[in-house]
């Protein structure tokens, strides 16, 4: 079959188109013989397998083993020791007794019964989705919690009167004057009847409800007279509504009826909106609101009615803000500034009266909404008023800070009243003073103030809400943080302008956002203990505690953003163009130092030596290794080397701090992460060592030579060699390492860090060997003594040494690592590298161009390959013969066969050339040497086993 294939292959080779018939015939004969030999082997193997199967089937049919008889269970003995089997039963061993409990445990499990619904743990409430339900529940409790009948009656009566008025208007049943008079009389009657009912102590709630309904009806009457029928001019209607408000306030004070005052003032604040014609005077509007605010401040002196204070605050500043957005013009400044100061004074006094006059506990006395909300909104309106005046916002901030310094000092010196309330008020006022004084510097340079002040004030509101157990105040503070962040991002350009470091609004604004988020995260790290909190309050307490790590990271990233805008600061020259203060290399190392130094400053809060570790404070330190790797890669991609721009100082500093943090934290959580961090340190060492070599290559002006192409390969080889030497003792005797980090992280260094590094080195050696031409300028080219050959040999040798060492160790390795594949891969790469050595020799000494096509077409290269492959095959076969290694001998024989095939397919095409003669002679002589010194070694036979071990050897 082999001969038949060779003949037909030669015939087909002669018929193949082309002019080289001799070469075609020889190649066809060889390929045909190989095909015939493989076909013959396949056929013989199939025949032998079929014969074996038939023989086994006949043997099985001749000997049929008897079927095993069923063994009936023996009856249980009277002693109760469990079932036994008679000893005389052949082939049956005594079984151990089985307890009834074990039988029950091994029986088929019964389906589990469903747990009763009452036994299930209710899911925690969601404060977002529970808020509408909470409002509905409270309205339901108000309607049905007290005198349900009267409250329902008031609602129905009011609706009925409204329907009656509408019906009368639509059908013209009565004159409009009579209709309005009837409605007004009905309101007065309700109020009078409620006033009469207050004489009965048990009917106080009933009476207050009727009085409030009567005042609401009076408001409705005046509004209808003005808006629907124009019976009253705007001024008269305005005065009438103000008088109703004043009347309700006086009656509420006399009767101590908070609800009545709230209804009256709600109508009073709504009066200008109800009677507005769009042509009103803002001085009259603000004067009227100032009178209402003064009345609320007087009531705050007399009564601790917080809802009334909030109504006045929200209504006054809400209307003022809307007017300022829609109508304000800088020409109105002189007529609006006094009113803004007066509004601010009125509601600061209201908050002081509420806190200091009524002997309330500290948790309720300090109203965070008024204490912090009044300066926030007032300062926002002030900034809008003076936005056209240079530095006016900064001076306003200083003035406001001075006011709060005086208030804080006054409350600190105050000796009367509750000391706790005085202290809390002083802390709030001094915090506000510090915030406004801090804002004065950036506001003098830039108008972006809102986000910073809202962030600081939001932190103050959260702190007060935390101390007073008010979840709504804390929710408002968190919402204020989000709004402040959005406002900052809207006005931010990502860079800061200014000649002075830090003193610019971009940095200070981001820093204040960071500080506010971090202090809120610190306060929220422990769940809030709100005594008697509602379901919504309890749900929000759980929510804010869960958000504490998120707030920490928001604050940390805001701080990094503040550092970033400061590092990217620019100055504007006389021509109006801007120039960066720091160059690109300096910006990179400063950002890197900012991250690592910030993580180093925070990580002590998470150390287990603290009484209550703040674990999230360690998370920035967890990410030091990725940050360092990214900085190194970015510097390699964009800079000449990472040690520019002060990198010589910063990189050793940050690495030392990183190792210090790693030493303190790597015995805690997360345990699965720290081996990767240690491994990343090894990879970082490779990058930095490579950059050092880059710097050396640049200083020596060796770019464009082989020295530059082997930089990372040499750096990786040195690092892997250091790993092999450092882990040598720990791999030979596990547990012998006594010093950190090898005492606990030997596998991380010896395998997790070294395995990717060795793979990268092997592949890098292959790439360098194939693509580097070995230019050794200024040194002459010498085979094997040039940077390319030396670095490739060093990398492959260190990879092989590491692989052999870890395979001999007790490390838990994947099965592939202990198999033949890694060594085979290294051998293949080494074979390719040896072949490229001859390419570089032919290029430098033979004058062959360093081009793939030119090298392949060169007969010098091809002839050298033939001799080289034969020498390699000779070495393999001789060595395998001495050690009786048939696989290695077969590998050498295969290479020799490929060489012979190449002689006839490639080298034979050089007709008449002297090179062909030399190649054929050299290869032939070498093959003779192989046949003499290295015949096929005998196959190894298994040593005979003792009779006692025969059963163990049988699978």
Q: Count all strands and give the number.
A: 2
What proportion of the residues is helical, as a percent range?
A: over 70%
The residue ranges in which pLDDT falls below 50 over 5 or more consecutive positions are 67-131, 945-955
Spatial arrangement of strands, main beta sheet: 1-2
Instruction: Supply the number of helical segments.
Output: 36
**Overall mean confidence score, pLDDT:** 74
Q: How big a fraction of the residues is strand? A: under 5%
* Major sheet summary line: 2 strands, antiparallel
How widely separated are the two ends? 39 Å
Helix and strand composition category: mainly alpha
**Radius of gyration over C-alpha positions, nearest whole angstrom:** 46 Å
Shape: elongated
Quick structural summary:
The chain crosses the membrane at residues 23-39, 142-165, 177-195, 207-229, 235-255, 260-277, 283-301, 308-326, 338-356, 368-385, 391-412, 424-445, 471-489, 501-524, 550-567, 588-607, 672-698, 704-727, 748-770, 790-807, 819-839, 859-880, 887-905, 917-936. With 955 residues, this protein is mainly alpha-helical. The protein is built from 36 helices and two strands.
Explain what the structure shows.
- Pfam families: DUF2339.
- Residues 68-125 are annotated as: Disordered.
- InterPro entries: DUF2339_TM, UCP035905_mem.
- This is DUF2339 domain-containing protein.
- It comes from Ramlibacter pallidus.
- By secondary structure, this protein is mainly α.
- Among the domains are: 2-53, no CATH class; 149-280; 672-840; 858-938, no CATH class.
- Helix content is 71%, strand content 1%.
- Strands 1-2 form a two-stranded antiparallel ribbon.
- A hairpin with a 5-residue loop joins β1 (570-572) and β2.
- α8 packs parallel to α10 (282-302).
């Amino acid at each position: 079959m082999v001969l038949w294939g060779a003949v037909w292959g030669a015939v087909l080779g002669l018929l193949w188109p082309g002019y080289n018939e001799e070469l075609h015939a020889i190649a066809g004969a060889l390929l045909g013989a190989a095909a015939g030999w493989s076909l013959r082997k396949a056929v013989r193997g199939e025949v032998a397998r079929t014969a074996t199967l038939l023989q086994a089937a006949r043997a099985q049919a001749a000997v049929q083993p008897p079927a095993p008889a069923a063994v009936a269970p023996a009856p249980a003995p009277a002693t109760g020791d469990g079932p036994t089997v008679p000893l005389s039963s052949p082939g049956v061993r005594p079984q151990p007794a089985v307890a009834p409990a074990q039988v029950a445990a091994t029986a088929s499990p019964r389906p589990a019964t469903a747990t009763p619904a009452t036994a299930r743990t209710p899911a925690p409430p969601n404060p977002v989705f529970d808020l509408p339900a909470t409002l509905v529940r409270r309205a339901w409790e108000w309607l049905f919690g007290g005198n349900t009948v009267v409250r329902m009656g008031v609602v129905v009566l009011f609706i009925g009167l409204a329907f009656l008025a509408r019906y009368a208007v639509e059908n013209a049943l009565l004159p409009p004057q009579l209709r309005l008079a009837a409605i007004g009389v009905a309101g007065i009657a309700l109020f009078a009847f409620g006033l009469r009912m207050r004489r009965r102590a048990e009917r106080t709630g009933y009476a207050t409800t009727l009085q409030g309904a009567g005042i609401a009806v009076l408001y409705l009457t005046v509004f209808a007279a003005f808006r629907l029928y124009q019976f009253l001019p705007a001024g008269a209607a305005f005065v009438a509504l103000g008088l109703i408000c004043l009347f309700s306030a006086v009656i509420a004070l006399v009767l101590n009826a908070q609800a009545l005052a709230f209804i009256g003032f709600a109508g009073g604040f709504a009066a200008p909106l109800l009677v507005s014609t769009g042509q009103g005077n803002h001085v009259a509007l603000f004067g009227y609101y100032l009178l209402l605010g003064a009345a609320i401040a007087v009531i705050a002196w007399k009564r601790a009615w917080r809802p009334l204070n909030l109504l006045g605050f929200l209504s006054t500043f809400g209307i003022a803000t809307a007017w300022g957005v829609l109508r304000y013009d800088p020409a109105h400044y002189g007529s609006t500034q006094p009113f803004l100061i007066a509004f601010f004074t009125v509601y600061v006094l209201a908050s002081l009266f509420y806190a200091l006059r009524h002997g309330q506990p500290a948790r309720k006395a300090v109203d965070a909404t008024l204490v912090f909300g009044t300066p926030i909104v007032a300062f926002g309106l002030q900034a809008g008023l003076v936005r056209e005046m240079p530095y006016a916002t900064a001076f306003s901030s200083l003035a406001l800070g001075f006011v709060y310094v005086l208030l804080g000092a006054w409350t600190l010196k105050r000796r009367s009243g509750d000391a706790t309330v005085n202290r809390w008020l002083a802390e709030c006022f001094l915090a506000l003073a510090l915030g406004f004084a801090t804002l004065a510097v950036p506001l003098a340079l830039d108008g972006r103030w809102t986000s910073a002040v809202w962030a600081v004030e939001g932190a103050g509101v959260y702190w007060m809400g935390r101390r007073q157990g008010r979840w709504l105040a804390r929710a408002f503070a968190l919402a204020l943080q989000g709004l402040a962040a959005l406002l900052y991002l809207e006005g931010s350009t990502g860079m800061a302008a200014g000649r002075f470091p830090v003193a610019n609004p971009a940095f200070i604004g981001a820093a204040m956002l960071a500080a506010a988020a971090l202090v809120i995260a610190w306060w929220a790290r422990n769940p809030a203990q709100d005594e008697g909190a509602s379901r919504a309050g309890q749900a929000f307490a759980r929510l804010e505690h869960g958000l504490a790590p998120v707030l920490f990271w928001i604050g940390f990233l805001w701080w990094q953003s503040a550092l970033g805008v400061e590092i990217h600061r620019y100055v504007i020259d006389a021509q109006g163009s801007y120039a960066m203060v720091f160059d690109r290399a300096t910006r990179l190392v400063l950002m890197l130092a900012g991250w690592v130094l910030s993580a180093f400053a925070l990580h002590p809060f998470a150390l287990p030596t603290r009484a209550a570790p703040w674990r999230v404070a360690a998370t920035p330190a967890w990410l030091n290794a990725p940050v360092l790797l990214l900085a190194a890669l970015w510097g390699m991609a964009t800079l000449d080397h990472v040690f520019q721009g002060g990198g010589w100082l910063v990189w050793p500093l940050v690495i030392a701090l990183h190792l210090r943090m790693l030493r303190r934290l790597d015995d805690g959580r997360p345990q699965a992460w720290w081996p990767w961090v240690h491994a990343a340190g090894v990879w970082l060492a490779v990058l930095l060592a490579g950059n050092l070599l880059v710097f050396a290559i640049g200083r020596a002006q060796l770019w464009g030579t082989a020295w530059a192409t082997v930089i990372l390969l040499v750096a990786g080889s040195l690092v892997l060699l250091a790993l092999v030497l450092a882990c040598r003792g720990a791999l030979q005797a596990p547990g012998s390492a006594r010093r950190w980090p090898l005492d606990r992280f030997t596998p991380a260094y010896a395998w997790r860090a070294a395995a990717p590094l060795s793979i990268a080195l092997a592949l890098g050696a292959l790439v360098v060997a194939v693509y580097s031409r070995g230019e050794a300028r200024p040194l002459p080219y010498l085979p094997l003594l040039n940077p390319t050959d030396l670095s490739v040999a060093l990398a492959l040798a260190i990879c092989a040494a590491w692989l052999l060492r870890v395979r001999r160790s007790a490390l838990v390795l994947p099965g592939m690592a202990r198999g033949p594949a890694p060594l085979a891969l290294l051998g293949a790469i080494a074979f390719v590298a040896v072949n490229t050595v001859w390419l570089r020799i032919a290029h430098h000494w033979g004058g062959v161009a360093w081009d793939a096509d030119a090298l392949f077409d060169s007969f010098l290269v091809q002839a050298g390959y033939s001799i080289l492959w034969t020498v390699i095959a000779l070495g393999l076969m001789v060595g395998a013969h001495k050690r009786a290694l048939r696989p290695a001998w077969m590998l050498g024989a295969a290479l020799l066969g490929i060489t012979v095939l190449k002689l006839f397919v490639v080298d034979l095409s050089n007709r008449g050339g002297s090179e062909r003669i030399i190649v054929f002679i050299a290869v032939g002589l070498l093959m003779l040497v192989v046949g003499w010194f290295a015949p096929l070694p005998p196959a190894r036979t298994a040593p005979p086993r003792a009779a006692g071990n025969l059963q163990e050897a049988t699978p």
